[in-house]
Design a protein that fits this description.
Keywords: Signal. The chain has 109 residues and is α+β, with helices and mostly antiparallel strands. The protein has one domain. The chain has 3 helices and 6 strands; from the N terminus they run αβαβββαββ. It has a 3-stranded antiparallel β-sheet with strand order 1-6-5. Strands 2-3-4 form a 3-stranded antiparallel β-sheet. Strand 3 and strand 4 form a beta hairpin. The radius of gyration is 25 Å and the shape is elongated. It starts with a helix and ends with a strand.
Amino acid sequence: MFRRALATTAAAALTAIATLTVATPAQAEVDMVASPLYLGDYCRSQVHSSAGIGFYYGGSVECHSFASGGGLAYVGSGSPWSACAWYRTPPVIRIRTVVGGALGCTYAY
């Protein structure tokens, strides 16, 4: 009787340990908002050296330079996924539009 109880307890303990070691920790999500001026850094580095500002519209990051007479001049476009990845290393799991042409990036940690 004692051996059977000891064997059952040992088996339960080993099962509990195996369950604890197999379980994976929950993924945390971190949000970041890239403003148009912040996107300008990505644009200047990855799209065109004269870019100073970028807007997330229509599924892409539109890059612009500041025109000499005022206003903006379009200089190219980039990927919003690449822009989010350019700012942080962890995998990007979601992007979204934020008010004013900003880009929202969600990362998994």
